[in-house]
Amino acid sequence: MVYTTGDVTKETASIWSVDAIESIKFIQDSNVETFKNTVIGIIGNSYDPTKVYILWGCVNTGANYNISAGAVFYAGEIYTVDLTSFTPTNVAVGTMTSVGSGTLIKFSDNTYKDILLLRKFVITDGASGSGTSGTNGDFANWVSLSGLVRQGNIIRQIDTITAGNMGTGVDKVLHTITPATFNINNLKIDYSSSYAASADTAVILKLWKNPTIVGGNVTSGTILMSVSDKIGITGNEDSVISFTTMYNYAANDVLVITGNAASGTPGLQNFSNLIVDGISN
To answer: Does the pLDDT of residue 235 top 50, yes or no?
Structure first.
């Protein structure tokens, strides 16, 4: 259901709606729907309605439980979490609760009722699985949304070569790319290296998929990218070789980068960096 706005054309100076509670509920539902779609969009396809996601705060410090205030997202709604501190006999569990706000609303019979409810996740000591949503309600199993956004949806890996030479007439393995998570579906590969040789020489960098490697050299495989350049300027000055490409990663793919020089054995100089940005499912 998509909530938008009320149709005010039905009201005039002499006739208006008396169902204020229903109107307020519509506005409330509209806000809930907006926040729900926004947060689920941030979480991405990994969203699980049975899990409790920490939006901010809810940090435990100290040997016992000393949990800061914050807010969580659960089953499509946002809940406040109050500061709490206790010495556990079991584990910290979160339970969804509704309590009166203390603000009394006047009814047509001239009575006042506390109908405005505050919905919170309350953290208390209890047996594992005894809170809301079973063991997903255990505080230890709450998912940090900030951590998920940084690591779950976009993953950055940086690898470096500490030493080594390119191959001469062979495709020597310089880097092996292994994504850090199992659910990567797309990679942006950004490679840059600084090599030098005693004499000018042509070199080729290649990105391979599922190659055959013998003695540290690739003998066959699928070439995804090949870049040619020239290094080893007079005086052993560094020459930077780089490339950037996108790759639709499949589970268990092996990706390697190789270097092949026409002559000499160009050696690594100041740096060789491989940055891999992965977008997860």
So the answer is: no
